[in-house]
Write a structure and sequence with these properties.
Elements (H helix, E strand, L loop, with lengths): L7 H23 L3 H9 L2 H7 L10 H14 L4
């Protein structure tokens, strides 16, 4: 049976892809500058959860993660 576990480099690539997509969407949806969008992402509760491998958020779609981040920005936290 083949090993289906992802390597750390693959997981980091997935995380970076999620962040890139979400930053672009924040800029488009809210008219944020690149710096402001990155600041919102990296200082969010969602980002901490994205880095937590137990949540599996890195494996979810960028659209799903975008909705979580936007809810967190709107309401102050995500569950």
């Amino acid at each position: 049976m083949a090993n289906t576990q992802l390597a750390q480099g693959q997981i980091q690539f997935m995380i970076n892809c999620r962040i890139k997509d979400i930053v672009v969407w924040l800029m488009a949806d809210y008219g944020l500058t690149l710096t402001a969008a990155l600041d919102d992402v990296y200082n969010s509760d969602w980002y901490s959860k994205l880095l937590d491998m137990d949540t599996g958020l890195y494996y979810q779609s960028a659209a799903y993660n975008d909705e979580l981040l936007k809810a967190g920005l709107k309401y102050g936290q995500i569950s």
